[in-house]
Each structure stands twice: as structure tokens, then as C-alpha cells.
Amino acid sequence: MINYGKFQNFGYKGLYGGLDASEIAKKKNLKKSQKILDHMGSEELAANLFRATQTDAKLRRKNINGEHEAVITHYQVGKKVRQTIEELGGTMPEELPAVDSVRKAETRIKKVDQKKITTKNNKKKNK
Length: 127
What we know:
Layout: H1 4-15, H2 21-27, H3 42-61, H4 67-87, H5 102-126
């Protein structure tokens, strides 16, 4: 059985230049209650998704089952994704800004939509 938290942290360490989840959160000024995945922009989220999917594919392809081998594989794939970002001249994921959580963005969008409806209704009344 694999310790998922440990497994995830090794992937983060590879991608984020040695930082684990708590260090990433601290670097991005997130509160302890805030999850780093909820505060990633599209570029950072895509890098993490690529890391995760490629690790999963490699674990299956190479028939890797043990915890030690799995966490090392996750670290290596994360490091390779980081290397690719660097070679492309991209911004390292730990340097990308934290974004509003999905919930906060949804609330903001609802407020804007409500304001549009109110404005539209006011215009109809004034005609």
C-alpha cells in the first residue's frame, strides 16, 4: 500500500525544485486551511496534471508497484516536467502567483451576473 501524501509530496518536490506541499503553500502565502491545488492558475495546474498523468502512465507501463519505487518515479517525472518548463523558458511553478480559489471565483462571477441582471432590469424600467 502506498502512502498517498508521501507519494504526492515527492511529485511536488520534483516539479517545485525540492519544495513539498507545505513549503509551496507557504511560498504562495496560503493559509493552512487553503489547498494549493485550489489556488493554481491554468499554467501551474496543467504542469501538475501532466506530472500526475505521466507518472501514472509510467507506473503502469513499467509495472511499478512498491511504495519506494513509486515515490521515486513520481519525483523523477516531476523533475523532468520542471526541466522541460525551464528549457522552454517558462516560469517555474513555485514562482507563479496563487489565484483565487474556485469557490471565490464562482462567488465573484455570480455577483457580476447578478449586477448585469439588475442593470438590465433597471434599463427596462427606465424606458
